[in-house]
Amino acid sequence: MASFYGIDLKSRLLLGTARYPSPAVLERAIKASSAEVVTVSLRRESGTGRAGQSFWSFIQSLGLKVLPNTAGCHSVKEAVTTAHMARELFDTKWIKLEVIGDADTLQPDVFGLVEAARILCEEGFEVFPYTTEDLVVADRLVEAGCKVLMPWGAPIGSARGLNNVYGLRSLRAHFPDIPLVVDAGLGVPSHAAAAMELGYDAVLLNTAVAEAGDPVEMARAFALATEAGRAAYLARPMEPRDMAVPSTPVIGKAALGD
Amino acid sequence: MKIFLNDDVHEVGPGTLAAALDSLGYGDRKIATAVNGRFVAAAARPRTTLVDGDRIEVVAPMQGG
Question: Which of A74, A216, A230, A244 gives 20 to 30 Å between its CA and that of B44?
Answer without folding.
Answer: A74
